[in-house]
Amino acid sequence: MDSEVLEFDIGLGGGSSGRDGDEDAMDISHHVDEEDMVDSPLPVTWGGSGEIYLPEGDLLDLEPYEGMEFESEEAAKAFYNSYARRVGFSTRVSSSRRSRRDGAIIQRQFVCAKEGFRNLNEKRTKDREIKRPRTITRVGCKASLSVKMQDSGKWVVSGFVKEHNHELVPPDQVHCLRSHRQISGPAKTLIDTLQAAGMGPRRIMSALIKEYGGISKVGFTEVDCRNYMRNNRQRSLEGEFQLLLDYLKQMQAENPNFFYAVQGDEDQSTGNVFWADPKARTNYTYFGDTVTFDTTYRSNRYRLPFAPFTGVNHHGQPVLFGCAFLINESEASFVWLFKTWLMAMSGRPPVSITTDHDAVIRSAINQVFPETRHRFCKWHIFKKCQEKLSHVFLQHPHFEAEFHKCVNLTESIEEFESCWLSLVDKYELRDHEWLQTIYAARRQWVPVYLRDTFFAEMSITQRSDSMNSYFDGYVNASTNLNQFFKLYEKALESRNEKEVKADYDTMNTSPVLKTPSPMERQASELYTRKLFMRFQEELVGTLTFMASKADDDGEIITYQVSKYGEDHKAYCVKFNVLEMKASCSCQMFEFSGLPCRHVLTVFRVTNVLTLPSHYMLKRWTRNAKSSVMLEERSNDAYTNYLESHTVRYNTLRHEAFKFVDQGAKSLDCYNVAVDALQEAAKKVAVAAKNDGKTTMGNGRIRGNSASDANRANSDDMDKKIRELNNELNFASRKCEVYRANLLSVLKDIEDHKLQLSIKVQNIKISMKDSL
Q1: 45-49, 236-240, 556-560, 686-690: lowest mean pLDDT where?
Q2: Cα distances (Å, whole numbers) of residue 463 to 73, 285, 377, 382, 542
Q3: Closest to 590 measured CA to CA, from 765, 401, 454
Q4: Can you tell me the distance from the alpha carbon of 753 to that of 90, in angstroms, rounded to the nearest whole number?
Q5: Cα(718)–Cα(416) distance, rounded to whole angstroms?
Q6: What is the superkingdom listed in this entry's lineage (predicted)?
Q7: Paired strand residues for 404
Q8: Is the pTM of the predicted complex or chain greater than 0.90?
Q9: What are the DSSP calls for 679-704, one per residue?
């Protein structure tokens, strides 16, 4: 063999990648079942086509031996792999020898997959952290089969080592070994059919197991099924990718404000794609404070790797901020997607973003949105919980209710931590790996950790409409790219019609008021209908609550607010009287943008009759999408009166309380305080008698002067001020008339726009139906 050189080939199976421990790849070597073998005392010849040319007999126990001949190298590999399947180990190609003359392979060595040891490449690993280290699988096993090519063209066994230095795999587990995991043609056909019907990998594997009579007879694992479905989906998208690009180019040609981007080169057959139409970009300017990145459609159950960005409009309805097709789901791809989306949204990141529980997405968000509060979707976690803890749900019917109560109804971090530990101890789940994972991430999905951030949810314990996918009812598991465009446009039209209808109901119908409160009337005129109904619930709820003062430091008054007879479950409300701002321990306003019943209770007992302006978030009002906010309340004389009266009342009472505290410290202080109050009472009585006629200076009533000159000057000043006040009042009345006319015109314009929008939508629908 002087003319030959040794060449090493560390690929697995049929020349596949040689990553040790990677159980997800599939071997493509020919497979020969043991049922096809028969016994013979003569040398055995194996056909190159995978067929077996043997005399009759039983060869189920046949072992390789030196001198055994094969028609081809592939036949030798197939035989050794079949032998390995019977014995219980996996094989791979280890080394080969090529001819110096023509480079043809003339010698092969097939080994046990546990041959040798892992090559720890320090240069490759020293500069980066290995997040998920692979299991060590190579243990130096010497079992092998060597074959050489003869001058006749046949291959003969030149060496065979039978012994292994490790345990062999039992027959019911051999299908998990890498070189024996193969998806047959009939199995592929069945997977294709079930995937097209919208079934996911788990249900498909259940059907295959039932069809073949057991997992060991299926011949591959659920991981292989997932890989096949993913590759199958990507192959089908390659042919349709140009359709998507053509559609996006057409949309941009029709409207230059239509935005789209492709990761990499547009000439490539596939790549990640993002787009946002002009309406989506405009909606983000109004409602882009909180965003949901919905990755439901990335799962293998769906044929389209589709991921929309959505938010919540002023009616609490889902609103679209852009869409993406994710062919490549690496961290770099998500970073590209988030940066591209942010650029399309004028570079303004949201206050908060909600996504599925995914480590890759979390890492990308930390890079692109470092200041944005990232939350994992609680409802996706609950759904995953039903899968991961199905055995617990079956054995303990009350577990689900207790789990929900622990997550949703705990009022403080301490209460949640205590409840969680009690729950996992009660059901012996402290060591459950998945529960440990979500507990470690609790600050990103448990409400008690997130209440200080705005997520536009109406309730902490109820699922928001925004978490229902924007495209539910339109895009489903069987939707392909050809069907997608039409369904996508139908979904946009339907959502737009619902928003138009909600606008119409808000502007043209009046809600039923349940209290005589000026605050309720004020809210009914400013909030959209749905938001007012939610506010009304909180306002009516104050009737069952009581507020008692717990502390007053001179600037902030602290109240304990609770239902009658439930003092043990009190909420803490801190009220700044001078700034008219209150904060509650339930943090509903911070989380949803609506004041809670506990704050409203404090407003009631402190005589705050209308809602202070900073509690009226523009994004929840009927004018949310107006470029200029027409604040009726700022021009409403009655509202101004109530507000100014409330501020004066609370300020005076606050100062009076401090005066009383000082005056009661001693008898001398008390006597001085009484004298001062009596003198002040006289001056207040004079001011009340001359209401609007007494000159004000630096907040104090000017007393009568002994000097006639000073009195004359004062009278002249009073007269001038009265004249100016009369002019101001006249100007204010004219402004009110102009404002009323302007509002009337604007209302007519809005009504006309609404009618035109409805007509346009009806025309579009009729045209599409005719097509």
Answers
A1: 45-49
A2: 61, 24, 10, 12, 24
A3: 454
A4: 71
A5: 64
A6: Eukaryota
A7: none
A8: no
A9: HHHHHHHHHHHTTTTSPEETTEEPPP
Of 35, 184, 8, the C-alpha closest to 92 is 8
Please name the residue ranges forming H helices in 160-254: 185-196, 201-212, 215-218, 222-254
DSSP annotation of 447 reads G
Under a CB-based contact definition with an 8 Å cutoff, are residues 317 and 306 in contact?
A: no
Other C-beta atoms lying within 10 Å of the C-beta of residue 150 = 11
Cα diameter, the chain:
143
- As a whole number of Å, the CA-based R_g of the chain is 38
Mean per-residue pLDDT, 1-23: 35
Judged by DSSP in three states, 214 sits in coil
End-to-end CA distance of the chain: 75
User: 564, 544 in Cβ contact below 8 A?
Assistant: yes
Cα gap 103→697, rounded to integer Å: 107
The tokens describing 90, both together, are: 């996996």
Name the amino acid, one letter, at 527. Answer: Y
Q: How far, in Å, CA of 508 to CA of 177, rounded?
A: 69
Q: At what angle do helices 222-254 and 185-196 cross, to 10 degrees?
A: 50
The Cβ-side half-sphere exposure at 731, using a 13 Å CA radius, reads 6
d(CA 515, CA 536): 9
CA triplet 209, 210, 213: central angle to 5 degrees? 75
Cα–Cα distances in Å, from 639 out to 54, 247, 520, 597, 737? 101, 53, 12, 21, 17
25 and 228 Cβ atoms separated by less than 8 Å = no
Three-state helix/strand/coil letters over 105-162: EEEEEEEECCCCCCCCCHHHHCCCCCCCCCCCCCCCCCCEEEEEECCCCCEEEEEEEC
- Dist. CA 163–CA 475, nearest whole Å: 56
Paired with 8 in beta bridges are 95
At 286, list the tokens.
């109004």
**Residue pair 465/318 in contact by the 8 Å Cβ criterion:** yes
Exposure b/e, 435-469, CB count within 10 A at least 16 = b? beebeeebebbbbbebbebbbbbbebeeebbbbbb
- Which pair of structure tokens corresponds to residue 572? 């803490």
For residues 293 and 306, the answer to whether their CB atoms sit within 8 Å is: no
- Rounded to 10 deg, the angle between the 359-368 and 331-344 helix axes is 40
**Residues 435-477: tens digit of each pLDDT:** 999 999 999 999 999 999 999 987 654 444 344 578 877 777 6
Order across the sheet with 556-563: list the strands.
545-552, 556-563, 571-576, 581-584
DSSP 8-state secondary structure symbol assigned to residue 270: -
pLDDT in tens, 308-356: 999 999 999 999 999 998 877 789 999 999 999 999 999 999 999 999 8
The answer to whether the Cα torsion of 336, 339, 342, 344 is positive or negative is: negative
